[in-house]
Amino acid sequence: MAKNWIYKTPGIPDEAFDQSEAVPGPTKEEIRVITISKARLREGDTVLDVGCGTGGLTVEAALQVGSRGKVYAIDEDEAAARLTSANVEKFGAQSNVIILSGKAPQALLNLPNADAILIGGGGTQLRTILQIAANKLKSNGRIVVNAILLETATTAIAELKSLGFKDIDITNISVAKGKQINSGTMMLARNPITIVSATKL
Ligand code: SAH
Fold first, then answer.
1. In angstroms, rounded to a whole number, what is the distance separating the alpha carbons of residues 39 and 128?
2. Which atom of ligand 1 is nearest to the CA of 35?
3. Which atom of ligand 1 is nearest to the CA of 49?
4. pLDDT surpassing 80 at residue 1
5. Separation of 74 CA from ligand 1 center, angstroms?
6. Cα(143)–Cα(47) distance, rounded to whole angstroms?
7. To test ligand 1's pocket by mutation, which of 12, 21, 75 has the most ligand atoms within 8 angstroms of CB?
């Protein structure tokens, strides 16, 4: 049963996660909401979170797939794996999350087939990661790449096309949040994120 988040909908506030200066994330609240919706998760699904960072997406995915589902979270950085573990515990999702410290693409080879794969890290290895991810995805499985860099997005688009994915969707999200100042509410822009998602044939 989820602790600290009693709602069905995603969008846990960023400040509800344990955070560390040394580990990126959590993926910002509104970006998490759209990422999870692009993954089209169902109860009982198996999800791979590649580059789990703080565990923001891992926790949101775990709450969506429920106790019959599984989330495999991997990160090459051991501090990220530990922080994800703390956050998974904080939200009471230990029973359906498995956290591995390892580097993609190699670390992906040992993971089971999945209904959805979230890719938040990968850098120069992105093409190979997508090729292995394509093999791990079940038919009609969903892949979602969150890109800070334009180059990450364009590489993902090109590779998903060549791997024969269908319904490739590219969405760029710009969020601005209100901050109270003396004279009223000022909107402060956050970095735009490009979300590339697609369905395996
Ligand atoms: N979605 C996360 C934030 C991800 S930050 C959250 O909500 O908290 C991206 C993470 O990807 C970093 O922690 C980085 O260590 C990891 N990463 C980058 N390349 C990787 C690779 N090749 N294999 C595994 N992890 C990787």
1. 20
2. 1
3. 1
4. no
5. 8
6. 10
7. 75
Q: 87 Cβ partners below 8 Å, 6+ apart?
A: 17, 18, 26, 54, 55, 56, 58, 59
Residue 87 domain-assigned (yes or no): yes
Report the CATH number that the domain containing residue 144 is assigned in CATH: 3.40.50.150
Considering only CA atoms, which residue is closest to atom 4 of ligand 1? Answer: 53
- As for how many domains the chain has, the answer is 1
Q: What is the pLDDT of residues 65-122, one digit of tens each?
A: 999 999 999 999 999 999 999 999 999 999 999 999 999 999 999 999 999 999 997 7
- Ligand 1: residues with CB < 6 A are 23-27, 51-57, 74-77, 80, 103-104, 120-123, 125
The pLDDT tens digits of the residues spanning 72-85 come to: 999 999 999 999 99
- The reply to whether 190 falls in a domain is yes
